[in-house]
């Protein structure tokens, strides 16, 4: 059965015609937003991470109809007027991108994390360790980098938020 859902998609009011059995990942990619990657499709790799109402989710295991009335952010919305976001810059600067398949999901995960830090004064950012930041990204797998540069990027993004 088909259904039209209304949402904010990367800041723009959007209507998507979706199948009620379709995942959000399928709906987004079918809408041309192929920056969000399809990896495992069972919620284990994080390649499909998008933000719904600023919370990271695995779009492969979320029904598209769940997005009715929400604000969805994908990697396509992060650079503005050709200017990379601070988190994207941190990934480039750290050399954290190899094949790039995991990168959109990781960038969205880091983005949600640094925005949470910005919003929530109760989190003592100075006490965050590299291990804490690594743990925040535990649901996102990378087959290329060995993770060190990804954690470097995330640490730099968190520190950029501090300053
Ligand atoms: S493709 Fe969604 S978690 Fe792997
Ligand atoms: S850079 Fe290739 S999977 Fe992460």
TrEMBL record:
Q: Which UniProt keywords apply?
A: 2Fe-2S, Iron, Iron-sulfur, Metal-binding, Oxidoreductase
Q: Does the keyword Iron apply?
A: yes
The record's listing under Gene3D superfamilies reads: 3.10.20.30, [2Fe-2S]-binding domain
2Fe-2S ferredoxin-type domain spans which residues? 3-78
- Could you say which residues form the signal peptide? none
Which InterPro entries does its entry note? 2Fe-2S-bd, 2Fe-2S-bd_dom_sf, 2Fe-2S_ferredoxin-like_sf, 2Fe-2S_ferredoxin-type, Beta-grasp_dom_sf, Diverse_Oxidoreductases
The molecular function terms of the Gene Ontology recorded here are: 2 iron, 2 sulfur cluster binding; metal ion binding; xanthine dehydrogenase activity
Q: Name one Pfam family in it.
A: Fer2_2
The answer to keyword Protease applying to this record is: no
What residue ranges carry the coiled-coil annotation? Answer: none
- The EC number on file is 1.17.1.4
Please identify the protein, giving its name as recorded: Xanthine dehydrogenase iron-sulfur-binding subunit
Identify the species of origin. Endozoicomonas montiporae CL-33
* Designated gene of the protein: xdhC
């Amino acid at each position: 059965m088909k259904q039209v859902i209304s949402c904010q998609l990367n800041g723009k009011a959007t209507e998507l015609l979706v199948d009620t059995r379709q995942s959000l990942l399928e709906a987004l990619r079918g809408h041309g937003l192929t920056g969000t990657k399809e990896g495992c499709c069972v919620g284990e790799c994080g390649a499909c991470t998008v933000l719904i109402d600023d919370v990271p989710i695995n779009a492969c295991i979320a029904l598209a109809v769940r997005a009715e009335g929400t604000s969805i952010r994908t990697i396509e919305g992060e650079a503005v007027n050709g200017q990379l976001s601070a988190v994207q810059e941190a990934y480039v600067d750290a050399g954290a991108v190899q094949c790039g398949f995991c990168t959109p999901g990781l960038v969205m995960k880091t983005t949600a994390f640094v925005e949470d830090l910005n919003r929530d004064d109760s989190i003592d950012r100075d006490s965050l360790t590299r291990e804490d930041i690594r743990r925040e990204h535990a649901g996102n797998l990378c087959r290329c980098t060995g993770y060190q540069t990804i954690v470097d990027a995330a640490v730099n993004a968190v520190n950029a938020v501090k300053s």
